[in-house]
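User: Let's play a game. I give you a shape written as tokens, and you guess the letters that built it. Ready? Here's round one.
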């Protein structure tokens, strides 16, 4: 199953849980879906999901967290939530699950959707949910200022194994 199929499956489950017949009912236009990516990728990773949801009539926003710490990443998400005129569904992938858990207390947020994401309880850290591995691999490259990059040659294997080759190459760069 591809990543896009997994995300769409999660979105269908959300619509069914909300009592919406996904095949015949019009989308909930007054609700904005806000997508939050995980670590080692950026907002472009949501492109396929964005295309499907907007084609189906949904309003969609994509957060670009700076990935400089949970507090800053939640603040970036909050700025996007603040821009919305109505209810929001937050969708997080990977580390984005930690971000949406923290940002989900905003009164505009009506639902949280975790797509292959960390699901910490409020106040629980990402490291408690997914503790770091004892042995670090060679795929991460630290910069002089402490930021970390994934070796582009390892991206498809480590992060985007189910992506088309051209998409994985684009995202790796």
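Assistant: Ready! My guess for every position:
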């Amino acid at each position: 199953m591809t990543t896009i199929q997994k995300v769409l499956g999660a979105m269908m489950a959300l619509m069914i849980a909300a009592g919406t017949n996904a095949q015949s009912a019009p989308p909930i236009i007054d609700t904005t879906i806000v997508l939050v990516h995980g670590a080692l990728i950026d907002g472009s990773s949501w492109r396929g999901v964005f295309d499907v949801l907007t084609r189906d009539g949904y309003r969609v926003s994509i957060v670009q967290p700076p990935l400089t710490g949970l507090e800053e990443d939640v603040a970036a998400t909050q700025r996007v939530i603040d821009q919305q005129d109505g209810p929001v569904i937050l969708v997080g992938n990977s580390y984005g699950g930690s971000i949406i858990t923290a940002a989900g207390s905003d009164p505009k947020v009506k639902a949280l959707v975790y797509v292959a994401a960390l699901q910490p309880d409020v106040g629980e850290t990402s490291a408690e949910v997914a503790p770091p591995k004892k042995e670090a691999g060679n795929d991460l490259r630290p910069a002089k200022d402490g930021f970390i990059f994934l070796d582009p040659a390892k991206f498809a294997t480590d992060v985007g194994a189910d992506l088309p080759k051209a998409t994985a190459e684009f995202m790796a760069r």
